[in-house]
Amino acid sequence: MHSNRYTFIYAIVLSVITAVLLAFASEGFRPLQEANIALDKKTNILRSVRQYTTQRAEIEQIYQERVREIVLDAQGNERAGVDANAVVLKDEVARPAAERQLPLYEYTGEGGKKYYIVPMQGVGLWGPIWGYISIESDFNTVFGSYFDHKSETPGLGAEIAEKSFQQQFEGKKIMEGDKFVSVYVVKKTDKIPYGPEHRVDGISGGTITSRGTDVMIKNCVEPYLAYFEKLRNQ
Amino acid sequence: MSVETSTAAAPQEAKKDGLFSKKNRRVLSDPLDDNNPVTVQILGVCSALAVTVQVKPAIIMAIGVTLVTAFSNLIISLIREGIPGRIRMIVQLVVVALLVTLVDQILKAYMFDVSKKLSVFVGLIITNCIVMGRLEAYAMAQKPWPSFLDGVGNGLGYGIILVVVSVIRELFGSGSVMGLKVVPQFLYDLGYVNNGLMMLPPMALFLIGIYIWIQRARNQKLVNVS
């Protein structure tokens, strides 16, 4: 049997050694990890404008050349000197609409066509869901979308992260005349007062995730209308 | 002395107990079948249900667990004489947690996609019963080199189950293996559909059950043991 003294010293020494090792590992890997997270975000933003490349260099290059990061205030004015990547979407969504900061990504496509990519954040069944939706320069037509989730059920709610679900959004409309309608994520048989250009099929078995997606799109796109209105009138 | 056996184990050791002596080979190969951690020792079933939806994460998970069991066995075996008896479980846990955290950090740095898929399960290697089970049952009482082999063997034994289950689940659940489409499009056109149940954890339990059934039907030794 080891003495108490030995046991204590052993525990302390072991803890210190482990802590030092982990601290070094964490510091050493951090730059790589942060680069990965930043790249992941760029990849997802580009996916929402139908750029599906997975080549690291290509993503960096396209993003560098074609995407402009903007932060808007609730009145639709561009705010200078704010980094779009520093805005924490989760916190912004929880704020009253008038106080939100709104990050926006402007993508310049073929022939100088502009697309406006709205980041979204919402709740699914088990945890957060998020995504990006791109609107064409008529400020009405959806060009593409990307969704992802933290822990939705595989095969059910997690299907929102599948291309087949996301492609349904292409060509849908978010406006009806001057009114914001959004795109509904509903069951095929559910009735909504708007035409087929305002609805996509939800996921069977993933009702709560589908509803979460539906609410997320409405919540997150609407605040940008002020800015879209401004651009339209220019 | 025991330290040297583990690391360089030069030829002069061979006369005593060769690096890959018959005994040591058995230590390595037993867990693959006769003493499989999942199907015979019934350890680590939980994570085997969770990470077997697709083959690629399953393989990465198996490699991760193998590394962790092998090196935690090795480290614990090296320091086994000095570990104070009353806190030995805590010491084991600290070593395991250290290794798992390192694996997690490395995945995040070099294989971000995979680490996104495995997410929480890498951290849960710490609670994988195989790791602690082998430390207590083997490494605390054996020399470093056999302990290391035991860790590798058990990690691989776990890996075999993961790969078998995940191949079946991905094939029937998503129609692909390693992300490559295997089920041809014309079958879908004829009305074939992927089995959604395969994507859910309960199906993995059924598959492991079937695996155990087949294994015991084939290997009479196991039936007499239990």
Report on this structure.
- The complex is a heterodimer of chains A (234) and B (226).
- Chain A has 234 residues and is an alpha+beta fold.
- Chain A has helices at 4-47, 56-66, 89-94, 163-167, 207-221, 225-233, and strands at 67-72, 102-108, 114-123, 128-136, 142-149, 175-176, 179-180, 184-186, 199-201.
- In chain A, 38% of the residues lie in helices and 21% in strands.
- A 5-stranded antiparallel beta sheet of chain A has the order 1-2-3-4-5.
- The longest helix of chain A is centred in the N-terminal third of the chain and has 44 residues, at 4-47.
- Chain A is globular and about 80 Å long.
- The model of chain A has no long low-confidence stretch (mean pLDDT 90).
- Chain B has 226 residues and is mainly α.
- Chain B has one domain (34-222).
- Helix content of chain B is 67%, strand content 2%.
- Chain B contains 13 helices and 2 strands.
- A two-stranded antiparallel ribbon of chain B has the order 1-2.
- In chain B, α5 crosses α6, α5 packs across α7 and α10 crosses α12.
- In chain B, 40% of the residues are buried.
- Chain A binds chain B through residues 1-2, 6-7, 10-11, 14-15, 18, 21-22, 25-26, 29, 32-33, 36-37, 39-40, 151, 153-156, 205, and chain B through 53, 82-87, 90-91, 94-95, 97-98, 101-102, 105-106, 108-110, 112, 116, 119, 173, 196, 199-200.
